[in-house]
Amino acid sequence: MFRCHCRDCQQLTGSGHADMTPLAIDDFWISADLKNYEMSGGSGQSTFSGFCPNCGSQLTRNSSRMGDRVYVHAASLDDPSIYEPERSIYAQSAQSWDKATIIKSS
Asked: What CATH class has 2-93?
């Protein structure tokens, strides 16, 4: 579980970061249809954001680069209290006003 500070996540969530939990795509199931938005990620490869077609809430992220995983937005989990982020990724892109960067000490 992690907190992503990349510019794509900032823009897609409208905040300083996205809180995500990775799951194996073969173990993931969602009970409704998603509307997917395709964009080019930092690697230049396609990334996909899954949205609820009714309310527009962002639910998932995945990419062609890591096709075996789906990243689920923590707040969209049935029980978001299980989310315990362990680290930040793309922390160098964190906004100065976003004090939620997780720095793991050794």
From this structure: mainly beta
Of the candidate ranges 11-15, 41-45, 58-62, the one whose mean pLDDT is the lowest: 41-45
Note the pLDDT of residue 45.
Answer: 82
- The b-or-e profile of 37-57 (16+ CB within 10 A means b, else e) is eeeebeeeeebbbbbeeeeee
What is the per-residue pLDDT across 49-93, written as a single tens digit (0 to 9) for each?
999 898 888 899 998 888 889 999 999 888 999 999 999 999 999
CB 96 within 8 A of CB 3: no
User: How many CB atoms are closer than 10 A to CB 88?
Assistant: 20
> Per-domain residue ranges for the chain?
2-93
